[in-house]
């Protein structure tokens, strides 16, 4: 068989002649091509490899649709005569470039619609993309000369740059466009509880909480935001100086708004500081109008190999700071202060199950070893005042038995000597429990006397310089205004001098802590973290004057 085309069979055949064609257009839109001597159905039009759909044909014209499937903005336009299987045009065709001419406003908020005016956009949302600071914006409506968008929330700066991607090209605008500044209009409560959610009215809020920050009295806090110009703040436990929220600050996209207020905190306590990554177990003591305690970490797997640091609390700053001159690695079983300038350390010496004693001078930072009357006493009870250290009871342990000791010793700091006390001296004080591992004593000094307590479930004992003992059947809490305050139950704080009491939820107030200290007529205490803030730390909290003054 022999194949032939029209020109072979028809000597009068006149091939089509291209007269005119557009050099540019828009995706999905028609273009008109003028061709003389065109046979209907015998013309194909391609943009690169994509064949164009024919919208209609006439004697000297064919109208085709620019394919939306082309891959580049400057494809090759080809026109093929099927009669002769001949390409009658191969030329570059360029999509019209998008142009941004203006915005509906120069200032915009997150919950407002921005209209971008221009040329050569698109009616098909799948073929147009708008970027705001390189973040994709949600398109609400689009046409060839305008597109309406919602401002994206993942923004870090307020000056906005708009880019429109359409017709397989991108247009960037230098027109000014700035986010409206957020404005705090007020709060929906004038008193709050810690951890409570406080709703704050803010104009121009960013509904994406991840790209915003809220500070309460300068404290970063958790919050949630929405599109109704309200944020919900979780009131942090502190650190505060007083029982009021005095400022709320909101930040987003480099913009800041601040609101001064006077919102009362209803709790009986506030957090003033927190100790991170450390534990404390000894009584906090006061020296030269500052509070001190020893904290430790366990760097390895050995529970008895601890790293100790010395912390100082100032009543002016209400913050703890580490004293760099003191470090100790080992195991301090107990540490007691004598009310003057000396701290006594009772230490466990490695695996020998023997103990050592030393005294640390707070004024000179010098530590001196002290010989013990017996270096095998487990968990003795220790307290010190008037240049004397008292060591009594404790346990004698062997591999087969545990025996409670009843001997009592007095050490004189002035002449560095020990003497054993008679059984009648301090006889009112309970002996160590045979199940005890260590028994730190809570103590405070008032005048010439020391008040000691063995813990939450024990009595408080007033010991005078002549070693006479007066017992109060409640656990010691703190001193306030030369008054001894005790826990009369889990529901009351009780003043042993005035016989006044205040009903409180002790567990909610202090947890299981009994580590109180008083500075400048303010009462502080330590307790484990109890909120979503500062987890796995030790909180230092301050009791409200409402409770304290109710005890006077």
UniProtKB/TrEMBL annotation:
InterPro entries in the record: Ig-like_fold, Ig_E-set, IPT_dom, Kelch-typ_b-propeller
Gene3D superfamilies: Immunoglobulins, Kelch-type beta propeller
Pfam families, per the entry: TIG
Positions of the IPT/TIG domain: 98-168
Protein name: IPT/TIG domain-containing protein
